[in-house]
Predict the structure.
Amino acid sequence: MKKGVHDYAAYVTLNIIGGKWSMLILCHLRKGAVRFCEFPKLIPGLTQKMLTKHLRELENNGLVRRAVYPEIPPKVEYTLTSHGKSLIPVLDLLEQWGKEHLKMSAAHSDANLHILSQPKDCQ
Amino acid sequence: MKKGVHDYAAYVTLNIIGGKWSMLILCHLRKGAVRFCEFPKLIPGLTQKMLTKHLRELENNGLVRRAVYPEIPPKVEYTLTSHGKSLIPVLDLLEQWGKEHLKMSAAHSDANLHILSQPKDCQ
DNA sequence: CGCGGTAGTTTCCAAAAGGTAAGTTATAAA
DNA sequence: TTTATAACTTACCTTTTGGAAACTACCGCG
């Protein structure tokens, strides 16, 4: 999913949080600052390359703030900006719908086996 | 974005509406039934192949219903299921946040040029 | 001098997603 | 007989995305 000047602002939102890891990163930032090296521990499978890439994107979109502490060894912390925090309700709703959907599809795959006798589709 | 067994149900939602065209297709279905051949007219750039692919996905996820009318030339209509309709508030929120974001980033790129004298970031 | 720790960047490769264009089927109308 | 139409499917190719692993820089420590 990328580009394309469609009339829907929802498209913009998906371009921002639709990457493979962005949403996961944001979810962990909800609770407060996270160090660079903490992310891969929090998010299994996330590599440094993908982490930097998505963090830069989120930073460029004004959702996260990058704070560098001039220490050795280096320390960099990421936090949500206020704009980033405005995404939390959106994430919550996505979360909530996802849960409903999982319940639904579980129920449905059970049901298929013994209940259904209604017409499934007009055809 | 695909796969990955993370703890966030929001991930599930994004897998469903996160494709390049799914959200656009759903948006047009909000108003009612749409024929196959109407989609490419409604959504510039959408090809038949991508359309079928995403429609099948949405169908498999129980969000849209496919109704075939046995006529020549063929007629196939797609509608939202009730489960599909439950996504509308989600799409609306994505839309709303996207609009806010566009306002924000427009304001920000203006502001950058003359206003800012605050520290941008601790570094 | 070499090691460890943090925060990256870079290179190289594989997989997934997406696009183009042509083919398919069925029938009715010209 | 050819054409047109709707709804697909298929083959082939390009682009995008993602991942593994190595490399850089910095400095203190032993």
Remarks:
- Chain A has a mean pLDDT of 86.
- The first helix of chain A runs from residue 9 to 17.
- Residues 2, 19-20, 45, 47, 49-50, 53, 72-74 of chain A lie near DNA strand D (CB under 10 Å from a C1').
- Chain A touches chain B through 50 residues (CB under 8 Å).
